[in-house]
Amino acid sequence: MVNMSVPMIWMLIMIVLLVIELLTLGLTTIWFAAGALCALIASIADASFTVQIVLFFAVSIVMLLITRPWAIRYLNSRTTKTNAEALIGRVVRVTKDINNLRDEGQVVVDGMEWAARSSDSTVTFRKDEFVVVDRIEGVKMIVSKSNEEGNNICHR
Q1: Residue 55: closest CA among 131, 154, 63, 96
Q2: Which long-range contacts (CB under 8 A, 24 or more apart) does 35-39 make?
Q3: Who has the most CB within 10 Å: 22, 26, 45, 132?
Q4: Beta-carbon contacts of residue 92 (< 8 Å; ≥ 6 apart)
């Protein structure tokens, strides 16, 4: 069996956690790598193994609680909505009456036809009315009444 010193073990743990973080880029192990770094420093300073373990967990948890919400908010604010997700909230024109009971309805968004259904099955929409896209379920847009007819409208 390989004889490894405690600082080497902490360094190995830190490297493994950093490699995992680099491979996933999911902000999952970076805080534990910081905890391992603090435990490594404590180990080099001849702190007891109990102190090293406490430092590892304390630093990891504190880093996780303090920086993760900020990092997620910062990183998620820079992501661009793509495909159908970008259509949610847009105001669009009905091109075929929307009636859930008859299983019919259509809107056109950016030149593409979408089957459309009302978010409230008791509400119908007539051709040329404006509706807002609430969500997308499969290939159908779920829409509701629009309170605006000028902002964010897709006329195509």
Answers
A1: 63
A2: 35/59, 35/60, 35/61, 35/63, 36/10, 36/11, 37/10, 39/10
A3: 132
A4: 107, 108, 109, 130, 131, 132, 133, 141, 143, 153, 154
SS3 2: coil
CB 93 within 8 A of CB 133: no
pLDDT digit string (tens) for 9-39? 999 999 999 999 888 877 778 889 999 999 9
Estimate the crossing angle of helix 6-24 against helix 30-44, to 10 degrees. 160
The CA dihedral of 129, 131, 137, 138, to the nearest 10 degrees, is: 50
Residue type, 40: L
pTM of the predicted protein model: 0.48
